[in-house]
Amino acid sequence: MRRTRILAAVGAGALLLGLAACGDSKDSSDSGKDSTGGKQVEVFTWWTSGSEALGLEEIEKVLKDKYPDIKFVNGGVTGGGGSAKDLLQTRLAAGEPPDTFQVHAGKEAQDYIDAKQVEDVSDLYDRFGLTDVFPQDLIDMLTQDGKIYTIPSNVHRANVLWAAIPVLEAAGLPTDSAQFASIDEFIAALDKIKAATPDVTPLSVGGTWCQVHLLETVLIAELGAPAYNGLFDGSTDWAGAEVKGALEKFGKLMSYTNADRDSMDWEPASQMLLDGKAAFNIMGDWVPALLDSKNLVAGKDYLYAASPGTEGIYDFLADSFSRTVGAPDKAGAEAWLDVISSKEGQIGFNKVKGSIPARTDIDLAAEGFSEYQQSAAESFKSDTIVGSIQHGAAATIKQGADANNAVSKFTTGAMDAAGLATLQQELAAAFAG
Amino acid sequence: MTRIKRYVPPILLISPSLVLVGIFVYYLIFGSVQLSTTDTHSFPQFAGTVPHENVGIDNFVELLRSKDFQHSLKNLLLYTAIFITGTMFFGFLWAWLLDRRSRAEGVFRSLYLFPMAVSSVAAGVVWRWLLNANQGKDASGLNRLFQATGLGFLENGWTTSVSFGIAAIAMPAIWQMSGYVMALFLAGFRGIPGELREAARMDGAKEWQIYRHVLFPQLSPVALSALIILGHMSLKVFDLIVSVTDYRFYPTKAPAVDMANYMNTGDYANAAAVGVILLLVILVLIVPYLIHTAREDRK
User: CATH 3.40.190.10 residue ranges in chain A?
Assistant: First the structure.
């Protein structure tokens, strides 16, 4: 009898403890919110490793110099875009947002805008003088009904062709430039490689997302910048003959690629270049970080150029930040936005990360940026800027995902006329709404 | 009064777990069902800034009609069939071999059980390499092994086949779970008293007759448990797929993968609907089993 009484007491105690614990957690989060006033900025990113984390540290330093009284709280979450975005969504839905968070500039921010989770920051563009230093194309792309919701911190280029010089040499192709005027010209070069060195994969590509990346560069090449931009505002028909022609070229290019593409990410695919296993690779300009880490030299070991048929067009993607609606500390968020858009912040971050500043008033050569970065910044200033589908500049999260589903279905199937028709139909459906 | 004394302490003792299970299992199932009957197909709707409406069973109808979801369901069926057949076969075979008192039983038992200790994600990374789709001169992994052993005709694209790619995913699953089934069956074999075998032998039964008429019938409850456990694991297959291939890789899509994909794009209603469909499929499997065991207990 006594034993049961003790057990009952323990049980009841456990229950009470559980309830008390629930109460506690709520209290602490509330008080946490109160104590933040004007003292700190929580920045939510997925920059948690490698050059990105180092870059973030650089911005943190600039923040400390410029705003010594604001404490930086690193809200970094590992797991690339996917799981970080999930967690962010949960926090936003629960009404406990970070002061500012990372988002791909462009359409990917649309969900947050529609959900009224980010604020119009065009006042900050005026206050920080950004309107004059960002390229007009970029600002146009970020503007919606006269409002701008995000401030880009760094810019990457997606449409870059990488070529392995030793492989080109073996196939008797020119080794001074990898610039091809059109996809057809590029295909002729791929044929040459196939004939001369049958052991080499002419064009290496990675899994589904890399294939979508390849597809978007083909679309840009075949449609040209105005018609490509028209794909996203309804003025170019996804179901039309132009897109069909581009998809056919994409299918043709896929026939030159490695059979094990779906088991690799971009890195092993680009790695094939430096192992002499592949001649070409179309991938964003995060590739030099990989090549340079193996002590390869641009111009001697590898070439880079705008992807075939896209010279003079800059297929951009960018990380950006905004003010969160209901941010616990608005002043902190604005300080952060000031820092990431400032000269010092953009120089510090991009030099380490390998991307280029979105500002065009920085002398990259004088600041010690790499040769590739200098050339990319040159193009960014003078080229026509278009947005990337795969990397969220021109497509919402859902459109990008649907494009991935459609492309995977096509490239794992027979890649015949029926497959092409399905691909075109599914892409049209993805971008219809 | 004495009645209360008898009932209150036990109820108090189990109440914490009752409350927790109530909230974190049954309330959340209820929440999923509710969400699956709305048109919450985007982040803004989930956040509540854009209104959502009740649409009844529309999501379910549309899902079941969609070719892509049918592909996932077909994949799930194929995967389950291959996984269960393979695991039961190898598990039983190994248990039967070990039951014959092989010399290094302890070693083999551990050897067969080890794969289960490897997490699906870690196993998936290894199998991603083993199932490399390259053939001929570039082959690696299993295809390379086939070449080296003169079995070159067996080379294939593994997961890249649209119709049967999912079967390649069943291979690591079988490799992982066969040891577990072996342990179940081995326990079953060992639970049968030695006297039964001896009695059968005395009556002149041949060895295979002993298995057929004495041992196998007594293993059927074990087999049933194994089937149920494997069945519900198979229906939830997810981690192995996304680590061997990818979330958006068409040939190996399954409902659980679709669920994650829907969720990652803010389509919470469809994600919940897929979850509910999976729950129903699992219930179809589990409920008859529960009824069966309840009847057995009453006997």
Answer: 37-157+318-387, 160-315+395-432
